[in-house]
């Protein structure tokens, strides 16, 4: 059972539909008891960092998520702003992040010819090809991105995938049972389906 956290922000239906195409049972919920029983958790996010953090905080679910993820080691996957929220904070706003991964979220620099937001398909480089989330991923893997801010991990060993847009940035991060992807796997066709399948089966 994959549990997608519903805090009224994020492309929830698209994420759930991708899991359903994989034949994986998935539910979208903010119900405390269902989250308490979740086998694996997805934290989506779209829009502004502070709005997402405030929306999640307003649900009152953060203490339960900390119990499940930090103490019980339930696998969690953050998507887009949901991944950024795993860090300490973002240059986009002033609210603190969850602080589960030691990283900051930074704005892409103003460089000649560099359009912001970064929008579209981008190839990735595997930094940890043996990681369960990356099993079966080949050198041509690419994903769909929409973002103006990028994840910068304090520890390079926490970076699973790197992409390039004006500079190298973390496209996916992972510490223990906690992973986050800057791209949208639910919009990334073959490779997104493959990564979500690996999360469902092997994380």
Overview of the molecule:
The chain has 203 residues and is an alpha/beta fold. The chain has a single domain (2-202), classed as Rossmann fold. 27% of the residues lie in helices and 30% in strands. The longest helix is centred in the last third of the chain and has 14 residues, at 189-202. The model has no long low-confidence stretch (mean pLDDT 96).
Assign the CATH class: Alpha Beta
CATH superfamily, please?
Answer: Class I glutamine amidotransferase (GATase) domain
Q: Write the H/E string, N to C.
A: EHEHEHHEHEEEEEEEEH
CATH topological fold name: Rossmann fold
Q: What is the percent of helical residues?
A: 25-40%
Overall shape: it is globular
Rounded Rg? 16 Å
How many beta-strand segments? 12
Strand order across the largest sheet: 2-1-3-4-12-11-10-7-8
**Total domain modules:** 1
Structural class: alpha/beta
State the end-to-end distance: 13 Å
CATH hierarchy: architecture: 3-Layer(aba) Sandwich
Q: Uncertain spans, ≥5 residues at pLDDT below 50?
A: none
Largest sheet: 9 strands, mixed
Please state roughly what percent of the residues sit in beta strands, choosing from under 5%, 5-15%, 15-25%, 25-35%, 35-45% or over 45%. 25-35%
Output mean pLDDT: 96
Number of separate helices: 6
Brief digest:
The protein is an alpha/beta fold and 203 residues long. It contains 6 helices and 12 strands.
């Amino acid at each position: 059972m994959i549990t997608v956290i519903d805090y009224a922000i994020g492309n929830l239906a698209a994420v759930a539909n991708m899991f359903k195409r994989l034949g994986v049972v998935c539910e979208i919920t903010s119900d405390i008891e269902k989250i308490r029983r979740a086998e694996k958790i997805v934290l989506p996010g779209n829009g502004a960092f502070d709005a997402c953090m405030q929306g999640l905080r307003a649900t009152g679910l953060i203490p339960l998520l900390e119990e499940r993820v930090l103490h019980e080691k339930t696998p969690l996957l953050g998507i887009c702003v949901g991944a950024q929220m795993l860090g300490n904070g973002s240059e986009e706003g002033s609210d603190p992040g969850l602080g589960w991964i030691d990283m900051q979220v930074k704005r892409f620099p103003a460089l000649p010819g560099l359009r912001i937001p970064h929008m579209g398909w981008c190839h990735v480089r595997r930094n940890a090809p043996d990681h369960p989330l990356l099993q079966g991923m080949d050198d041509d893997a690419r994903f769909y991105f929409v973002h103006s801010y990028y994840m910068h991990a304090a520890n390079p060993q926490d970076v699973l995938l790197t992409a390039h847009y004006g500079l190298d940035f973390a496209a996916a991060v992972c510490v223990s049972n906690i992973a986050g992807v800057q791209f949208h796997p639910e919009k990334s066709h073959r490779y997104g389906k493959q990564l979500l399948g690996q999360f469902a089966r092997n994380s």
